[in-house]
Amino acid sequence: MSDKKIGVEKVINSLSDFENELEEIKSKTEIRKNELINMAETEVDKIQNDIIKKAIQTKDKNISENVKKDKVRADEIISKGKLNIEKLQKKIDSKFDSAVKDVIKKILGV
User: Fold this and answer.
1) Does 94 fall in a domain?
2) pTM
3) Cα(38)–Cα(44) distance, rounded to whole angstroms?
């Protein structure tokens, strides 16, 4: 009977050792899991920051390009406006004498 008792104690000790090993593996697994989660969060933050940085750069580039295009367009509009003003002034100048004579005739009743 003592052989059986010794055999049972060995089995119990083996199971206890196995249980301890399983607990240790579980603990290490949990530590590794947390490390992986932290690494993943760090990488996600880096990627997120890169995406935001690139988006800001793209936005700034687009704004700069649009400002340049708008300035060119504004300069074209200003040039056309100046030309139109000059043409209008020439018409006014060419019609002024005629208009003055017509007003004088109306006033004098001629």
Assistant:
1) no
2) 0.55
3) 10
Residue 48, domain member (yes or no) = yes
Amino acid in the structure at residue 46: K
* Maximum alpha-carbon separation in the chain: 153
Range of the domain at 49: 1-82
Does residue 100 lie within any of the structural domains? no
Is position 103 within any domain? no
Under DSSP, the state recorded for 109 is: T
Number of domains in the chain: 1
Radius of gyration from C-alpha coordinates of the chain: 46
Tokens of 76: 């074209």
Tens-place pLDDT, residues 64-107: 999 999 999 999 999 999 999 999 999 988 888 888 888 888 88
How far apart (Å, rounded) are the C-alpha atoms in residues 98 and 45?
Answer: 78
